[in-house]
Amino acid sequence: MGVQETVLMQLRDLILRGEFPPGVRLAEQQLAERLGGSRTPVRAALVTLEQEGLVETNPTGGYVVRQFTSAEVADAIAVRGHLEGMAARLVAEHGVSRQLALDLQSCLDEGDAALAATTLKVSHYARYAAMNDRFHALILEACGNRALQRAVSLNDKLPFAPASAMLPMQGSLALDRDWMLYAHRQHHMLVQALKQGAGARAQALASEHTEVAQFNLRQALERRSESEKSMPAMRLVIGG
Known about the structure:
There is one protein chain. This protein has helices spanning 3-16, 28-35, 39-51, 70-94, 98-114, 122-142, 146-155, 173-196, 199-209, 211-228, and strands at residues 25-26, 55-57, 63-65. It is mainly alpha-helical. The protein folds into two domains: 3-68, Winged helix-like DNA-binding domain superfamily/Winged helix DNA-binding domain (Arc Repressor Mutant, subunit A), CATH 1.10.10; 70-225, Four Helix Bundle (Hemerythrin (Met), subunit A). The protein has a three-stranded antiparallel beta sheet with strand order 1-3-2. Strand 2 and strand 3 form a beta hairpin. Helix 4 (70-94) packs antiparallel against helix 9 and helix 4 (70-94) packs antiparallel against helix 10. The chain is globular, with a radius of gyration of 18 Å. Mean pLDDT is 86; it is low at 229-240.
């Protein structure tokens, strides 16, 4: 886990919270000052956010926040659930290799360690996010279906669709930690199903896993709705 992952998590969170209205220019230097870092990780994070569909380039070569709706986000998460469910079923049916089992166990151990602290900090979220991305990528790679892999890659270009894009960071830390612990327990159960060759169960677990992201989206919208009552000028278009 490095500075770049931490900055990426923070910028995603700021966009989700509506701190930057659609079309607003994201200045690297100002973002670096706000996050207390340098421009290099900010620049790298903006490139990733463009790939994820959260920002887009403007004619001057900089980045602006893309306009999107809550329905777009919810739909993209739902599609990811179906695609990852299919990938998990294929892995279970093909059988888990010794190397894949070791790699998945490494992810489980890393997630356990990241969530061990009673109070989570940004660094814990970033560490967990890096693990989570690797976990999902391992299963997708192991499924062996290139068409499915391309479909996931295409879906990941939609706002907040990637696996770690909807990790909670903007609410009650105790509640966020509870949901992350729940999500990681699902990781453990999914790995068990994969090893047992239980295709239907693996598919159901992988699909259900995205409900954590849907919950986080609903929570973020509720929190934003409350903040907009006092800061209407900060609104990011994320209504249905």
